[in-house]
Design goal:
Blueprint (H helix, E strand, L loop, with lengths): L2 E4 L4 H18 L13 E8 L3 H10 L12 H9 L4 H22 L3 H24 L2 H5 L8 H17 L6 E8 L5 H7 L16 E9 L5 E8 L3 H9 L14 H16 L11 E6 L6 E8 L12 E8 L4 H15 L15 E5 L2 E5 L6 H5 L12 H13 L3 E3 L2 E6 L12 E7 L1 E2 L3 E12 L2 E13 L7 E15 L4 E16 L18 E12 L3 E15 L4 E18 L1 H14 L10 E13 L9 E11 L21 E15 L2 E14 L39 E3 L5 E3 L9 E14 L2 E13 L22 E11 L4 E11 L23 E6 L4
Parallel strand pairs: 2-4, 5-7, 8-10, 8-13
Antiparallel strand pairs: 1-32, 3-4, 6-7, 9-10, 11-14, 12-13, 15-16, 16-17, 17-18, 18-19, 19-20, 20-21, 21-22, 22-23, 23-24, 24-25, 25-28, 26-27, 28-29, 29-30, 30-31, 31-32
Helix pairs in contact: 4-5
Keywords: Cell outer membrane, Membrane, Signal, Transmembrane
InterPro entries: D15-like
């Protein structure tokens, strides 16, 4: 959901520019040194020199003091601005007044406990707000940063931590030295405002040493490398497993000594042994000893894996029985998970739940399914259980079982726990090598309903909408998910014919059935279940009623979905059937469609005829990010679609309606995104997006495709300085005829293209609490693949396409509520390739031309 609007008039922008200039001058005239107490010095610069690029970022992070942030917001200047309005004495008086006022109210309340409770709550809230102001300043000060007061003790601790880090990376002879330089620098903006020959500040000498620059000089020296890797493992069984897994070791002869790699090696060995039956093995048994005494700059590393005790070896555990409880309560599942956690921590079986009787027990594929009433198909669930009797205990298979049960969306909790038993089946946690596995699955609610209310603001009209979704789990006993949804809304729309804003009615209904397996006529191996295969049937209908037309769109899809990993998903859609029908269209709108087609070659008319779109599609999606995009991650989506391959089978049949258009086309799109986490709350994000679509054979004598299959640029998730779908095509400038017969540029018609290239670069940073900010630059355009005489300059040509990239830049504010992200982006056109040659640098005209004023985009979620 988003909208784009424009600010009208030039006055507000000139006033805003003047206000910013005055504010800048005011801040420049105030030195931040006035915030310092006697004897304090301001840390103005910190740098690390002499380190490799890979290590330098880590060393900078280890510095305990860093200068105040200057980009993208001057945090110290903001703090200084708020300090002008801050009065701590007044805040203390207000605190005292609040206490006195509430003390009077408390006495007046007498013994009324309800009133006393309300008074105490209000008193605590008001006191907390005032105490926050007293401790951290007013709201403006908290938006900025207090001056970083230089502390030489922090510098010494930073040197120690940097040295320790370098030693852990194999630089045992590394040295770090810190030097601080104190000096006073005139504010350059202040000098500019005061004049080139302004007299020096009379307090210059007193403030000579009040700014400090700290430089950490690093001498890494020669790194120590691993010259020999040995192992001491008294348990022969453990030694054999370690030898078999040696090829995956994180340590190699000739590699640099690295304690991070050593930690990873310990984790790998623990996982390796737990994958081969060593259920009670712990990482504490593993130690690595480094010896640097043999040869200069070399390390001999020995891996020691100790036994549990004198004369005791590590035990290999085999599964005796696997039980799945499919109707466990929440309390039982939580107790089971807690007991398993305690057991893995080595504290025994404290809190282990006792298994109650389950009268309905079924054995399928050697797995026992216990329930008071079997509501889920045991045969289907058996395919999701990766552990089996007779197998060695395996941590990866345990985690796979939990993941596959979670992917079913049938259970709230599904911990897999183990109990050790002796040969006679009596619980005994000390001397046996047998395990009983129990999957304690707690069913999720069978029915789930979600209702959303919201609104849009388009064409000066508020458009309410309601979205209702209903989900039912396991409707047919095979762990299926049936989802139904209805959306009804009204959206403002500007009617050019009447020059008035009117409402558009939108109605949509969807139905989807998801099966937790592939629906195919042949048997698929049980091992494929680890990829969480699903089959999805979906049917949707969209109805749009506007003053110009009434249109319906019915779509039926049949999809196969599976997960290659937690981040990588594949979808193949062998059947995609789409039927578009325009049931009513006004004469004025039909005339406009015909004019656009006749004079400008626009394919917009295709959206308002009867269309049948049979196609096949496939997509691959890799996304290692989370919902709130807080990871250093990558995103890549590849989509391929081929449509109309079957049209020759029926388009010439006697029963076929020739008024129905069927397009034959191929389409491919690719979207790559990279999220660089610069600090816990700052990110540098960039995106490359492109695609090609083209008709395979002509339709009605032209190589054309269905209108909704074209590629578009511009809008809230594209090049944000342009209206949605209005950017392009290439260097072609669309025009319309005025009433007097003159031509003017058309900014409002959609510009469909056959080739799309676009990208974005965005820097995201925190502002205050849940308020986040961003600065960004977008670029891109669309083109046609073949020459079009009606649209000169629209064809993609290798020698000219770079000059036809549109560029827009702007700033954004995001309200991150964790469960919902509201976004406001303000973007201005920088370069417009379709404008006349003397007006392409649109940034020079944004305050002169209403079409080049900044665009406001309001949306939900990040743009990419």
């Amino acid at each position: 959901m988003f909208f784009v609007t424009k600010l009208g008039g030039r006055g507000p922008w000139r006033a805003a520019a003047a206000l910013l200039l005055v504010a800048a001058a005011a801040l420049a005239a105030c030195s931040p040194l006035k915030l310092l107490r006697p004897g304090q010095r301001l840390l103005s610069k910190m740098e690390v020199v002499g380190a490799d690029r890979a290590d330098q970022d880590r060393l900078v992070a280890l510095a305990q003091q860093k200068p105040n942030t200057r980009f993208p917001l001057p945090k110290l200047a903001i703090y200084q601005l708020g300090n002008h309005f801050y009065d701590s004495a007044s805040t203390r008086r207000q605190l005292a007044a609040i206490r006195q006022d509430f003390e009077k109210r408390r006495l007046a309340a007498g013994g009324d406990s309800a009133k006393l409770g309300q008074l105490l709550n209000r008193r605590a809230r008001r006191l907390n707000r005032k105490q926050l102001v007293l401790d951290k300043g007013n709201a403006i000060m908290r938006l900025g940063e207090a001056p970083v007061i230089y502390d030489s003790a922090s510098t010494r601790r930073s040197v120690e931590q940097m040295t320790t880090y370098l030693h852990s990376q194999g630089y045992f002879r590394a040295r770090v030295a810190a030097t601080d330089t104190a000096r006073y620098r005139h504010n350059p903006l202040l000098r500019l405002l005061a004049g080139r020959h302004a007299a020096a500040d009379s307090a210059d000498r007193a403030k000579l040493y009040r700014r400090v620059s700290v430089r950490y000089r690093v001498r890494q020296g020669t790194p120590f490398v691993l010259s020999q890797l040995t192992a001491t493992i008294p348990d022969s069984g453990v030694a054999a497993v370690v030898r078999r897994g040696r090829g995956a070791s994180r340590l190699h002869v000739g590699g640099r000594y690295n304690e991070d790699a050593i930690g990873q090696e310990r984790t790998r060995l623990e996982t390796l042994l737990k994958s081969n039956g060593y259920y009670d093995f712990r990482q504490a048994y593993i130690t690595l000893e480094a010896d640097t005494s043999y040869q200069a700059f070399t390390v001999r590393l020995r891996t020691n894996i100790a036994n549990p005790g004198p004369g005791l070896g590590h035990r290999v555990y085999t599964l005796r029985q696997v039980t799945v409880i499919t109707d466990a309560g929440v309390g039982r599942a939580l107790r089971a998970a807690a007991a398993d956690t305690l057991r893995r921590a080595g504290t025994g079986l404290l809190g282990r739940p006792r298994r109650g009787p389950r009268p309905d027990t079924t054995v399928v594929d050697s797995v026992h399914f216990a329930a008071f009433r079997q509501r889920f198909s045991p045969r289907l669930l058996a395919g999701k259980v990766a552990v089996r009797p007779g197998q060695l205990y395996s941590l990866p298979r345990t985690q796979l079982t939990q993941r596959q049960f979670a992917n079913l969306d049938m259970f709230r909790f599904n911990p897999v726990t183990y109990r050790t038993v002796d040969a006679d089946g009596v619980p005994d946690s000390t001397a046996t090598g047998l395990l009983d596995a129990v999957v304690t699955a707690t069913p999720a609610p069978k029915f789930q309903e979600t209702t959303e209310f919201g609104g849009t603001y388009v064409a000066n009209l508020v458009g309410p909408f309601v979205n209702v979704r209903f989900k039912t789990r396991n409707p047919f006993g095979g762990a299926e998910v049936l989802e139904l949804g209805v959306r009804v809304g009204f959206e403002g729309q500007f009617n050019r014919a009447t020059a008035q804003s009117e409402y558009t009615t939108l109605f949509g209904a969807t139905a989807a059935l998801v099966l937790p397996q592939f629906l195919v006529p042949f048997r698929i191996g049980r091992d494929f279940s680890r990829y969480s295969p699903r089959t999805r049937f979906s049917l949707s209908d969209t109805y749009v009623s506007r003053p110009e037309y009434t249109r319906t769109n019915v779509e039926l899809t049949y999809d196969y979905i599976w997960q290659r990993s937690a981040f990588h998903q594949f979808v193949i859609s062998p059947v995609v059937q789409n039927v578009v029908n325009t049931t009513a269209i006004s004469g004025d709108f039909q005339y406009r469609l015909d004019s656009l087609r006749r004079f400008y070659g626009s394919p917009l008319y295709q959206s308002f005829r009867r269309i049948y779109e049979p196609s096949m599609a496939a997509s691959s999606l890799y996304n290692s990010n989370d919902f709130n995009e807080t990871r250093d991650a990558r995103y890549f989506r590849l989509f391929v679609e081929v449509g109309g391959l079957t049209r020759e089978l029926y388009r010439h049949a006697a029963w076929y309606d020739t008024a129905v258009a069927v397009y034959n086309f191929a389409k491919i799109t690719a979207d790559y995104r990279r999220y660089h986490k610069l600090s816990p709350n700052t990110f540098l994000v960039y995106r490359f997006n492109g695609g090609v679509v083209h008709a395979l054979t002509p339709t009605d004598g032209r190589y054309t495709v269905a209108y909704d299959k074209y590629l578009f640029a511009g809008g809230s998730n594209s090049v944000r300085a342009w209206k949605p779908r209005r950017l392009g095509i290439g260097g072609f400038s669309p025009t319309i005829t005025n009433a007097d017969g003159t031509l003017r540029r058309d900014y409002n018609s959609e510009q469909p293209g056959e080739l799309l290239l676009e990208g974005s670069v965005e820097y995201r940073f925190p502002v205050y609490s849940f308020v986040k900010g961003a600065v960004f630059t977008d670029y891109g355009n669309t083109w046609t693949i073949t020459a079009d005489p009606q649209r000169p300059g629209a064809q993609f040509k290798p020698g000219t396409f770079l000059q036809q990239f549109a560029v827009g830049s702007g700033v954004g504010v995001r309200l991150d509520f964790t469960f919902l992200i509201l976004r406001l982006d303000v973007a201005a056109k920088v370069y417009d390739p379709s404008a006349p040659a003397d007006a392409r640098w649109a940034i020079k005209r944004f305050y002169k031309d209403t079409e080049h004023e900044p665009a406001f985009n309001l949306g939900i979620g990040y743009p990419f």
